[in-house]
Protein backbone atom coordinates (compact mmCIF):
# COMPACT_ATOMS: atom_id res chain seq x y z
CA UNK A 1 0.00 0.00 0.00
CA UNK A 2 1.35 3.42 -0.97
CA UNK A 3 1.86 6.09 1.69
CA UNK A 4 -1.29 7.99 2.60
CA UNK A 5 -1.47 11.57 1.38
CA UNK A 6 -2.54 13.92 4.18
CA UNK A 7 -6.19 14.88 3.87
CA UNK A 8 -6.13 16.88 7.10
CA UNK A 9 -4.93 20.40 7.82
CA UNK A 10 -1.21 20.46 8.60
CA UNK A 11 0.37 20.83 11.03
CA UNK A 12 -2.27 19.13 13.14
CA UNK A 13 -0.32 19.24 16.44
CA UNK A 14 2.04 22.23 16.05
CA UNK A 15 2.57 22.73 19.78
CA UNK A 16 3.92 19.26 20.49
CA UNK A 17 5.11 17.71 17.23
CA UNK A 18 7.43 18.66 14.38
CA UNK A 19 7.04 16.53 11.24
CA UNK A 20 10.18 15.97 9.15
CA UNK A 21 9.23 15.02 5.60
CA UNK A 22 11.63 12.88 3.57
CA UNK A 23 11.43 12.10 -0.14
CA UNK A 24 11.75 8.33 0.20
CA UNK A 25 8.53 6.44 0.91
CA UNK A 26 7.75 5.59 4.54
CA UNK A 27 10.70 7.62 5.89
CA UNK A 28 8.86 10.72 7.14
CA UNK A 29 9.26 11.03 10.90
CA UNK A 30 8.42 13.41 13.72
CA UNK A 31 10.17 14.80 16.78
CA UNK A 32 8.94 16.19 20.05
CA UNK A 33 8.68 19.92 20.68
CA UNK A 34 8.02 19.49 24.40
CA UNK A 35 9.54 17.94 27.50
CA UNK A 36 7.53 15.46 29.55
CA UNK A 37 8.21 13.43 32.69
CA UNK A 38 7.85 9.65 32.56
CA UNK A 39 4.28 8.70 31.58
CA UNK A 40 3.30 12.34 31.04
CA UNK A 41 0.41 13.02 28.67
CA UNK A 42 1.54 13.73 25.11
CA UNK A 43 -1.76 13.69 23.20
CA UNK A 44 -5.30 12.40 23.37
CA UNK A 45 -6.85 10.16 20.72
CA UNK A 46 -10.07 12.08 20.21
CA UNK A 47 -13.10 11.81 17.90
CA UNK A 48 -12.69 13.78 15.68
CA UNK A 49 -10.16 13.73 14.11
CA UNK A 50 -9.94 9.98 14.80
CA UNK A 51 -12.45 7.68 13.15
CA UNK A 52 -13.09 3.94 13.37
CA UNK A 53 -11.48 2.26 10.36
CA UNK A 54 -13.45 -0.03 8.07
CA UNK A 55 -10.45 -2.35 7.87
CA UNK A 56 -6.88 -2.42 9.17
CA UNK A 57 -4.16 -0.80 7.05
CA UNK A 58 -0.53 0.13 7.62
CA UNK A 59 -1.78 3.51 8.88
CA UNK A 60 -4.39 2.34 11.41
CA UNK A 61 -3.92 1.70 15.12
CA UNK A 62 -5.57 -1.35 16.68
CA UNK A 63 -7.57 -0.40 19.77
CA UNK A 64 -9.36 -3.71 20.44
CA UNK A 65 -9.53 -7.32 19.33
CA UNK A 66 -11.31 -6.39 16.09
CA UNK A 67 -11.33 -2.59 16.18
CA UNK A 68 -8.95 -0.26 14.38
CA UNK A 69 -8.53 3.50 14.33
CA UNK A 70 -7.67 6.00 11.61
CA UNK A 71 -5.73 8.83 13.24
CA UNK A 72 -6.41 11.40 10.48
CA UNK A 73 -3.65 13.67 11.76
CA UNK A 74 0.11 14.10 11.93
CA UNK A 75 0.13 11.52 14.72
CA UNK A 76 0.31 9.10 11.78
CA UNK A 77 4.00 10.01 11.52
CA UNK A 78 4.89 8.50 14.89
CA UNK A 79 7.04 5.64 13.67
CA UNK A 80 7.96 2.27 15.16
CA UNK A 81 10.96 1.65 17.39
CA UNK A 82 11.99 -1.34 19.47
CA UNK A 83 13.01 1.18 22.16
CA UNK A 84 10.12 3.66 21.85
CA UNK A 85 9.78 7.11 23.34
CA UNK A 86 5.97 6.95 23.57
CA UNK A 87 3.22 4.56 24.64
CA UNK A 88 -0.13 4.32 22.83
CA UNK A 89 -2.56 3.51 25.66
CA UNK A 90 -5.64 2.52 23.67
CA UNK A 91 -7.71 1.63 26.75
CA UNK A 92 -7.58 5.27 27.88
CA UNK A 93 -7.26 6.67 24.33
CA UNK A 94 -4.10 8.63 25.11
CA UNK A 95 -0.48 8.77 24.02
CA UNK A 96 1.93 9.11 26.93
CA UNK A 97 5.68 9.42 27.35
CA UNK A 98 7.64 6.25 28.01
CA UNK A 99 9.45 5.45 31.27
CA UNK A 100 12.40 7.68 30.29
CA UNK A 101 10.25 10.74 29.71
CA UNK A 102 10.55 12.99 26.67
CA UNK A 103 12.80 15.89 25.64
CA UNK A 104 12.52 18.39 22.77
CA UNK A 105 14.13 16.89 19.68
CA UNK A 106 13.50 13.27 20.70
CA UNK A 107 12.09 11.23 17.84
CA UNK A 108 8.49 10.24 18.47
CA UNK A 109 8.14 6.48 18.25
CA UNK A 110 6.12 3.64 19.72
CA UNK A 111 6.33 -0.15 19.69
CA UNK A 112 3.87 -1.23 16.98
CA UNK A 113 3.24 -4.74 18.41
CA UNK A 114 2.01 -3.04 21.60
CA UNK A 115 -1.20 -2.29 19.67
CA UNK A 116 -1.04 -4.51 16.55
CA UNK A 117 -1.74 -8.25 16.64
CA UNK A 118 -1.48 -9.06 12.92
CA UNK A 119 -0.17 -6.16 10.85
CA UNK A 120 -1.54 -5.46 7.38
CA UNK A 121 1.89 -4.42 6.12
CA UNK A 122 4.85 -6.06 7.93
CA UNK A 123 8.33 -4.60 7.52
CA UNK A 124 11.95 -5.06 8.54
CA UNK A 125 12.90 -2.76 11.39
CA UNK A 126 16.10 -0.74 11.16
CA UNK A 127 15.67 1.27 14.36
CA UNK A 128 19.26 0.49 15.32
CA UNK A 129 18.41 -0.30 18.94
CA UNK A 130 20.46 -3.04 20.63
CA UNK A 131 17.17 -4.84 21.25
CA UNK A 132 15.90 -4.48 17.66
CA UNK A 133 13.43 -7.29 16.90
CA UNK A 134 14.07 -7.31 13.15
CA UNK A 135 10.91 -8.35 11.32
CA UNK A 136 7.84 -6.52 12.64
CA UNK A 137 4.55 -8.19 11.73
CA UNK A 138 2.55 -7.80 14.93
CA UNK A 139 2.55 -9.44 18.35
CA UNK A 140 1.02 -12.64 16.93
CA UNK A 141 4.29 -13.57 15.24
CA UNK A 142 6.56 -12.70 18.17
CA UNK A 143 7.73 -14.87 21.02
CA UNK A 144 7.21 -13.97 24.64
CA UNK A 145 10.96 -13.38 24.91
CA UNK A 146 10.72 -10.73 22.16
CA UNK A 147 7.88 -9.01 24.02
CA UNK A 148 9.40 -9.18 27.50
CA UNK A 149 9.72 -5.78 29.14
CA UNK A 150 7.51 -4.01 26.59
CA UNK A 151 4.31 -2.18 27.50
CA UNK A 152 1.42 -4.05 25.81
CA UNK A 153 -2.23 -3.06 25.51
CA UNK A 154 -4.91 -5.20 27.10
CA UNK A 155 -6.20 -6.72 23.86
CA UNK A 156 -2.68 -7.82 22.94
CA UNK A 157 -2.14 -9.43 26.36
CA UNK A 158 -5.46 -11.27 26.05
CA UNK A 159 -4.63 -12.58 22.58
CA UNK A 160 -1.21 -13.74 23.76
CA UNK A 161 -2.78 -15.61 26.68
CA UNK A 162 -5.25 -17.28 24.32
CA UNK A 163 -2.39 -18.31 22.03
CA UNK A 164 -0.49 -19.86 24.92
CA UNK A 165 -3.57 -21.63 26.27
CA UNK A 166 -4.26 -23.09 22.83
CA UNK A 167 -0.66 -24.29 22.58
CA UNK A 168 -0.88 -25.89 26.03
CA UNK A 169 -4.13 -27.66 25.15
CA UNK A 170 -2.65 -28.92 21.88
CA UNK A 171 0.45 -30.16 23.68
CA UNK A 172 -1.65 -31.96 26.28
CA UNK A 173 -3.90 -33.53 23.64
CA UNK A 174 -1.08 -34.85 21.45
CA UNK A 175 -0.01 -37.82 23.67
CA UNK A 176 -3.63 -38.54 24.62
CA UNK A 177 -4.52 -39.16 20.98
CA UNK A 178 -1.82 -41.80 20.50
CA UNK A 179 -2.29 -43.58 23.84
CA UNK A 180 -5.57 -45.41 22.99
CA UNK A 181 -4.02 -46.94 19.87
CA UNK A 182 -1.19 -48.40 21.92
CA UNK A 183 -3.57 -49.67 24.56
CA UNK A 184 -5.87 -51.21 21.97
CA UNK A 185 -2.91 -52.89 20.29
CA UNK A 186 -1.74 -54.36 23.57
CA UNK A 187 -5.24 -55.52 24.45
CA UNK A 188 -5.68 -57.21 21.07
CA UNK A 189 -2.36 -58.99 21.37
CA UNK A 190 -3.19 -60.11 24.90
CA UNK A 191 -6.56 -61.46 23.79
CA UNK A 192 -4.94 -63.36 20.95
CA UNK A 193 -2.42 -64.91 23.30
CA UNK A 194 -5.14 -65.86 25.77
CA UNK A 195 -7.12 -67.65 23.06
CA UNK A 196 -4.02 -69.60 22.12
CA UNK A 197 -4.34 -68.67 18.45
CA UNK A 198 -1.31 -66.47 18.13
CA UNK A 199 1.45 -67.33 15.70
CA UNK A 200 5.04 -67.44 16.97
CA UNK A 201 5.67 -64.07 15.29
CA UNK A 202 2.63 -62.51 16.95
CA UNK A 203 3.59 -63.94 20.32
CA UNK A 204 7.08 -62.45 20.09
CA UNK A 205 5.78 -59.03 19.10
CA UNK A 206 3.18 -58.98 21.85
CA UNK A 207 5.66 -60.02 24.50
CA UNK A 208 8.11 -57.29 23.47
CA UNK A 209 5.53 -54.47 23.41
CA UNK A 210 6.24 -52.08 26.30
CA UNK A 211 3.49 -50.88 28.57
CA UNK A 212 2.32 -47.28 28.10
CA UNK A 213 4.23 -45.27 30.73
CA UNK A 214 2.48 -42.85 33.04
CA UNK A 215 2.86 -39.18 32.09
CA UNK A 216 5.99 -37.74 33.72
CA UNK A 217 5.57 -34.91 36.17
CA UNK A 218 7.45 -32.54 33.86
CA UNK A 219 5.36 -33.15 30.73
CA UNK A 220 4.68 -30.67 27.93
CA UNK A 221 1.71 -29.10 29.67
CA UNK A 222 3.71 -28.57 32.85
CA UNK A 223 6.54 -27.00 30.87
CA UNK A 224 4.11 -24.71 29.03
CA UNK A 225 2.51 -23.58 32.27
CA UNK A 226 5.90 -22.99 33.88
CA UNK A 227 6.97 -20.93 30.88
CA UNK A 228 3.78 -18.85 31.08
CA UNK A 229 4.44 -18.25 34.78
CA UNK A 230 8.01 -17.19 34.02
CA UNK A 231 6.80 -14.67 31.44
CA UNK A 232 4.23 -13.30 33.88
CA UNK A 233 6.92 -12.82 36.52
CA UNK A 234 9.09 -10.95 34.01
CA UNK A 235 6.17 -8.70 33.08
CA UNK A 236 5.59 -7.88 36.75
CA UNK A 237 9.28 -7.07 37.17
CA UNK A 238 9.19 -4.78 34.11
CA UNK A 239 6.18 -2.95 35.57
CA UNK A 240 7.96 -2.65 38.92
CA UNK A 241 11.01 -1.09 37.26
CA UNK A 242 8.83 1.34 35.29
CA UNK A 243 7.04 2.37 38.48
CA UNK A 244 10.35 2.86 40.30
CA UNK A 245 11.61 5.01 37.43
CA UNK A 246 8.48 7.12 37.56
CA UNK A 247 8.59 7.60 41.33
CA UNK A 248 12.27 8.55 41.18
CA UNK A 249 11.53 11.17 38.52
CA UNK A 250 8.56 12.71 40.30
CA UNK A 251 10.22 12.75 43.77
CA UNK A 252 7.06 13.19 45.85
CA UNK A 253 7.43 15.65 48.70
CA UNK A 254 5.84 16.03 52.13
CA UNK A 255 3.35 18.89 52.18
CA UNK A 256 2.18 20.51 55.44
CA UNK A 257 2.68 17.38 57.48
CA UNK A 258 0.82 15.20 54.97
CA UNK A 259 2.88 12.64 53.15
CA UNK A 260 2.03 12.25 49.49
CA UNK A 261 1.16 8.78 48.22
CA UNK A 262 2.77 7.09 45.25
CA UNK A 263 1.63 7.81 41.67
CA UNK A 264 -2.13 7.90 41.21
CA UNK A 265 -4.03 6.32 38.34
CA UNK A 266 -4.51 9.83 36.92
CA UNK A 267 -0.76 10.37 36.86
CA UNK A 268 -0.02 7.02 35.27
CA UNK A 269 -2.57 7.82 32.56
CA UNK A 270 -0.76 11.05 31.80
CA UNK A 271 -2.39 13.66 34.06
CA UNK A 272 0.62 14.74 36.05
CA UNK A 273 -1.14 17.00 38.55
CA UNK A 274 -1.92 14.31 41.12
CA UNK A 275 -3.07 15.77 44.41
CA UNK A 276 -3.86 12.78 46.61
CA UNK A 277 -2.42 12.92 50.13
CA UNK A 278 -2.95 11.30 53.48
From TrEMBL:
<protein>
    <submittedName>
        <fullName>4c36e3c8-b16b-44bb-bbbe-9cfadd504ef7</fullName>
    </submittedName>
</protein>
<feature type="domain" description="Post-SET">
    <location>
        <begin position="121"/>
        <end position="137"/>
    </location>
</feature>
<dbReference type="GO" id="GO:0032259">
    <property type="term" value="P:methylation"/>
</dbReference>
<feature type="region of interest" description="Disordered">
    <location>
        <begin position="255"/>
        <end position="278"/>
    </location>
</feature>
<keyword id="KW-0489">Methyltransferase</keyword>
<dbReference type="GO" id="GO:0008168">
    <property type="term" value="F:methyltransferase activity"/>
</dbReference>
<dbReference type="InterPro" id="IPR053201">
    <property type="entry name" value="Flavunoidine_N-MTase"/>
</dbReference>
<dbReference type="InterPro" id="IPR046341">
    <property type="entry name" value="SET_dom_sf"/>
</dbReference>
<dbReference type="InterPro" id="IPR003616">
    <property type="entry name" value="Post-SET_dom"/>
</dbReference>
<keyword id="KW-0808">Transferase</keyword>
Amino acid sequence: MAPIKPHWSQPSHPDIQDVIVNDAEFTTKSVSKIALPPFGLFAKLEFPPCTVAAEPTYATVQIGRDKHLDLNSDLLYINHSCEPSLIFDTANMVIIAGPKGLQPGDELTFFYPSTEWDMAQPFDCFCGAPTCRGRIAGARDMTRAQLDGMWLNGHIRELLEEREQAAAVAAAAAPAETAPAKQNGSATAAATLTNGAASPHTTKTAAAAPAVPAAPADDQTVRALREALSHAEKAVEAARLALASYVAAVKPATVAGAQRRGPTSRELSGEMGGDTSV
